[in-house]
Structure formats: C-alpha cells, structure tokens
Protein: ATP-cone domain-containing protein
Organism: bioreactor metagenome
Amino acid sequence: MYPIPENPIYVIDGEGLQQLFDPEKLQQSLQSSFIAAGNPDGYLAEDIALSVEAAMLDGARLGRFFTQSEVDAAVIRILETAGFAEVARIFQRANSRLYIAVDARLDGVRQLIERHLGLGGAAAETVALRVFQALNQLGIASGAPGLYLELARHYERQCAESITPPMPAAAPDTAGRFLLSAAEVGSFLTGEGRLLQQAGILQLTGISRLYPNFRMGLHLGRLAEYARLRPPVTEMLMADVLYRAGESVGQSLRAVCRHLGGNELPLYLKLPEFERFVRDWLEADYPAGRPAAMELLNCFRAALGYPVRKVSARG
C-alpha cells in the first residue's frame, strides 16, 4: 500500500468515481502510445506526465479535483503542440472510455457537484441550476457524470485549458528537444556530488525543452555503503554524508539554473529501492519504517538548499 501524497490530486472518471491522480500510470500510457506510433521520443513521457501534474498543482482550482477527460485533453494538446500528432491520436484512441448514463435531474446534478467539486450551499445550487438549464437547452435527458461535472467547471470558469501548461514550438530534431543532456547536467557536479554520481548513488537526467525540470535519483542504500556504515543506521550516523552530498548537489543545481538563464527549475527527487533500504538498513518493517527513513532525508534536503517539488519513494 502506498501512502496518500502530500498534495493529492483527484481525478473523476466517466462514472463519477474519484481516484488519486497517478503520474506514473499516465507516463506508462504515454510510453505505450509512443511505442505504438513507432516514435523514439518515448523518454519524454515522464516530462509530459509531470508537466500535467505540475499544472494541476499550480492551478487555482479549490480541492484539486479534475475530470479524466480534462486530463486526457491536456495530454493530447501537449502532444499535438509538441509535434506528436500520431502519438496523440493513438493515446486518444487507447484512452477512450465507455461512460454510464445518468438522468439529468437537478437534484442529481447538485449532488455530483457537492460530492466532487467541493461546492455547497448557494454556490452549488447556482452552478447546478445553470448546468441543468444547459442540459435542457441541448436536449440532453441523460448523460455521463463527467459531462455534468465539466459543464459545472465551465460555469466556475475552470475548463480543460486551465491545466494545460504553455508549450514551446516543436523542436526540429531529437537533439533539439533538450536544453541540456544528462551528461551536460552531470558535468556541473563537483566534489562529493561527482563522486556519488560515479558510484551510481546519484543519478541526474537530461533537461528537456518540453518541461524543463531536474529529475534526481538518490540511492540511500548505496549511500550507506559508500559511507561504510552498518545496519541499523540512524539519522545521526548518516547525517555527515547526507549533508555533504546535499551541499555539493545543491551548488551544482543552482549553477545549472544560472547557466540556463537564472530561472529555478522544479526538482523531482526519486529514492530507488526505498522499501529495501527501510528493511535492510533501518531494520524496520515497511511501511511502518517509512517515516523514519523520510526523516533521514531531511538532512539532505536542508543542506541542498533547493526546493524539492516532489519526492517519490516506491519499491
């Protein structure tokens, strides 16, 4: 079982059911679409998924509830704008869904809005009435819950475009899709950071034009081995190596940002084999030992001195 994210985003499917948004699931679907299209740029799938997630997190929408069709429309728009029309077509076909129909009654519409959009009282009544009137004008006696919710979004002045980040023009070739390659990003590492990269403890990916961001992997188990520690490790035992690593890497990230013009790029931190680290190095059960392992990371983040957009710790 995975814990609920710190800032959860909820997606409402065609049946009106509420699910946690999973960027990794979206990434896998995108990668399948790239492969089916015979397109070699599937490595951009993660950037696209993260850009959609970031736009939803940054949006002003209360409660962070979105319909699945909004998410799909945003992805398709990103693909088309980036020059991946065939991938967009395959993604759209693969993610077409069958919807159940619900009678267009005013009380039913109001209940959907209250349950899934976080509206209540007079606001819910007003939006529900406008949706109901629109359905009547269109001659719709029944339809998918997602349709009603999207109409409600419209009347809240929150439509699918609100979660679509601005996209640059499509790059003419594969090389042009990167601001910096993984090797170029790695060249900014110095001292402890470079040693950790050479030891396979720290991984950095290239920075794409599609959604410029840092994606960093930090292997805590290998870091403990690098520091010649023995289990069970504690925050005190790992503090020194975590601090040195964070300080060195933070300086490098800021150097990259200066090189690219000074804008701070979002940082996504991944912790590979996290469950194994908890079991083998903390000698704790999982997920009970997860909070203690995350506490270890605080020393690294403090020394990093660079905001972390999201921490992924699975497996």
In short: Residues 175-312 form one domain. The mean pLDDT is 85. The radius of gyration is 23 Å. The chain has 13 helices and eleven strands.
